[in-house]
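Hey everyone, long-time lurker, first post.

I ran two proteins through the pipeline my lab uses and got sequence/structure pairs for each. Pasting them in order. The first:
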Amino acid sequence: MVMSITLSLVAIRRRDIASHRAWIIRGYAIGQGAGTQVLTSIAWLLLVGTPGPITGSLLLGVAWIINLAVAEWIIRRAGLRGGKTARKALLVAAQPLAGPLCSVRNASTSRLNSSARSMIGICPVSG
């Protein structure tokens, strides 16, 4: 959920409203997982009986999967972007952390670091 909120903030700072909305919907879906967990647990309890520790954990995970599946359906139905825009948001979020990576320069690794940095898109290619 923290990642979804962070990526939504990065998107809104770029003025990418559609991507922001998509990430907020995902974050909300994760946050509402507790309500769905109650429903899946009650349904299991009524149909099968008391769940064991492993089954209980699986039911909690299933609730989050249900919420995220519904959120993705809503996002796609509304035509909000999420694929390439999500990658761009991750790269923008990583840029402050990439400062040391971008400044790594020595004779033996300069070319490798430059091509690796440009491949992942964090740092511009220099020379």
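...and the second, right after it:
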Amino acid sequence: MDEKYRKLLSIPQSRLQAINNVILDPKSEVMRAFLAVVDKYGTPDEINRKHLASRALPNLLRKVEAVRPEHLKDLEWLQQQVATGRFISVRTTADKSSDPVQMIEGSPTSMPSPLRCLRCNTSTGSARWSSMPSSTRA
């Protein structure tokens, strides 16, 4: 059965040639427009590289400074808190335990015990939580 579907996926050489003719035709408006976009924004690799660079913290802080400079002090405070270990990383906590409930209950952000899981109707689990008693939910 697998071979039958493989044969259906085959592209005849004549169709490939037709596609190449459109792509390589210097008079093709579609390809001119496409190449204009590539010329303006770059290749997919260049676009991805620019995107990664734009997500670097110094670049993000420059954007905040340009748009909302009043938030810089708050961000600096958060960075200081992280540097002094005031926050725990979810990744760090996940490394210590694969049980999401143990991670939550073992962290400073523990949920109060009346919270119950909406999915499994227990006080433990990793689904959404609600303080509504299970008897009042449909």
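Reply from user beta_strand_b:
Welcome! Quick read of the second one: The chain is about 60% helix and 5% strand. The first strand starts at residue 116 and ends at 117.
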